[in-house]
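tool_log.txt
---
The assistant was asked to compare two proteins side by side. It first ran the structure predictor on the initial sequence, then on the second. Raw inputs and outputs are pasted verbatim so the downstream comparison step can read them without reformatting.
(1)
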Amino acid sequence: MKYHLAIDIGASSGRHIVGRRENGEMKTTEVFRFPNGMIRKNGSLVWDMEALVDRVREGIDRAKAEFGGIDSLAVDAWGADYVLLYGRESARTCFAYRDGRGERAARLLHEKTDRRELYMRTGCQYQPFNTVYQLYDDLLAGRLEGATDFLMIPEYILYRLCGSREKEYTNATTTGLIGADSGKFDAELTGALGLPERLFGELGLPGKTVGEYEGIRCLLCATHDTASAVEGIPMRGSELYISSGTWSLLGAKTERCIISETGMRGNWSNEGGAGYNRFQKNIMGMWIINGLHERLCPDVPLPELINAAEESGYDETLDANAPELFSPEDMKAAFDALLSSPPPDPAGSIRCACRSLALSYAEAIKELENETGVSYHELYIVGGGAKNGFLNRLAQQASGKRVMALPIEASALGNLKIQAEAETHDTI
């Protein structure tokens, strides 16, 4: 029996899940879970990459010990962030996307290339944390002097495991530097911005073998966790999905990029999938609910608080995507400032957050159907947020779509699916 290891890392936690095929089905076992999070260092929000790599290796050791051997592994994680390499040395600082450094860089970059031109070239949504703005900040700060490469988070972890410097397609599409038509780094764009040509090479596709770690074959999955999550959804045809975690990523599979003026104004993004395009939108997601929970009553279990929210009579809503909620020092204060009458208790705050998110889902679905020209019938919700039954019911009510809530580790399942398919192709 072949054992595959999915290393699935999110902004708040990571997990190691072993999968094996039994009677045509993927059976999974979680062998390790660990907390993850940004830390503040020298005034910036950063990732502790050394600690993260240590946790990854610890999880691999546990998987090997429990199963007596692992045949392959692959890593998926969030997009946009990366580590700079200087020959064999890694940058000591890995900035986190919520740091905010990209906002100033974005203003300066768009003095050279306006936002419309960038969107029409790449089809990538505007977010101040996009890799293009972070790299431009590095350029302005002199950090690209002597830099020989940059690797997104999952590819950097693979580099530390097996020495590979392979860049992967789905994660590269979160950079804002991939040509919508070519599916490659846009050399004309990177050159116009003054970014060193040496940083941008060829892209590997999901399923490619890139090396070996302690006898384990290392593969590329769809290394952007949302791309792996979409692969992990047992979807009937092409329907709507929400990968619900720190962010709610709402979208649908399309054959090709969809780029339009209305798509740009709505901040819709085209990102790579395993053989298709993902037309999707970032919605603030569980970040708001978790931030309120931590601030208001961390000792109360979240399911209990959500049950109380369902019974609350507070009915005001707000813009769930308000920039004030992106990285506030105090989520409750930022939340209340957007309301005419702040909630009287924690249950009211959580109710407001859930209702506001559901309304933002419904609005986004209308926009998506207008852009694609398709009327969808089902909405698949996966990830940690799929456990929020109250939010799921609100989403169905607001959108009019049949909600299929699947509280599964979709990213890990997609990761494992790609590994298993690569194994099958290699043995044919």
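(2)
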Amino acid sequence: MSVNVLHLDHVTMQFGGVVAVNDLNLDVDEGEIVALIGPNGAGKTTAFNCVTGVYEPTNGRVTFFGETIVENHPQGKMKKLYAGDDSTEYPQVISQTPDCITRKGIARTFQNIRLFSALSVFDNVLIAKHMRARQNFMSATLRLNRKEEERMRTETKALLEQQNLYHLKDEVAGSLPYGLQRRLEIARALATEPKLLLLDEPAAGMNPQETNELAQFVKQIRSEYNLTIFMIEHHMDIVMQISDRIYVLDFGKLIATGTPEEVSSNQRVIDAYLGVSDDAEN
């Protein structure tokens, strides 16, 4: 029986009069690679931001391994702050911060690479390792726990070696070729020891060779790190090659879901998305 990792329950995100995500329901099960696709402006990255605590959704709930991490029901589910029939009722809001959500086991990359571009490759990954540090801020700042620091440096070295990046450890991250910067960003996400990895257009800006290498890389890290992967991608060759299931958004609404074969033959999807250019950017 499959284990549900991520569940979005009637998630809506509204900015003023614009509904970026409209009543979205989806599931990602353990071990899957699930893709979220759709035209530019369909609401894909907004959905990711709701999952990772960047946005508090206007309505709906997000659960991770059955635990509610984000919830907002302004006109539905309520909770009473005081006992008694005359108590005041308020909307139930649960909004964990991005760092708390990361500690629970959700890591992500971004549509636009967000490395510490002036720092070395090694330091970019080491910083992420501190998310799992077993020391407080003061001891880390004063370097009072040398064993803990050494453990994180050893784990950083091992991770860079596994990702074939260790020979670049002293290179400034911003000086790397684009494809290697993408790979480093994924390595930094892996350093937080996630159970669920969200990839936001990982192939954006890559040439065909880099794109093919990325597809193999994503499958490799799923196996090596026992990961579940949820990704946004415009390169349909990657989507069709490695996805177990696909969700399709159009103007914030879910218009189709299914296997790559089912989605690619869905006329509504063809009309809304597959028949148009696959330019990047949401």
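---
observation on (2): Residues 4-117+194-274 form a domain with the Rossmann fold fold (CATH 3.40.50.300). Residues 77-85, 277-281 have pLDDT under 50 and may be disordered.
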